[in-house]
Amino acid sequence: MFKLMPLFSAIDSADITTVSNIS
């Protein structure tokens, strides 16, 4: 999860969409 944190800042929009689908 800690490694995903910087990704959220870099691509929060795309990442949030992917996480929403996975979750």
Account of the protein in words:
The protein is mostly helical and 23 residues long. It has one helix and no strands. It has one helix at residues 4-22.
Which band does the percent of strand residues land in?
under 5%
Terminal-residue CA separation = 14 Å
Principal-axes shape call = flat
Share of helical residues: over 70%
Average pLDDT across residues?
65
How many helices in DSSP terms?
A: 1
Q: Give the number of DSSP strands.
A: 0
* Cα radius of gyration in angstroms: 8 Å
Major beta-sheet overview:
none
Order of helices and strands: H
> Which ranges are low-confidence, i.e. pLDDT below 50, for 5 or more consecutive residues?
none
Structural class: mainly alpha
List keywords for this structure.
mainly alpha; flat; about 85% helix; about 25 residues
Topology summary:
Layout: H1 4-22
Can you give me a brief rundown of this structure?
By secondary structure, the protein is mainly alpha-helical. The protein is 83% helix and 0% strand.
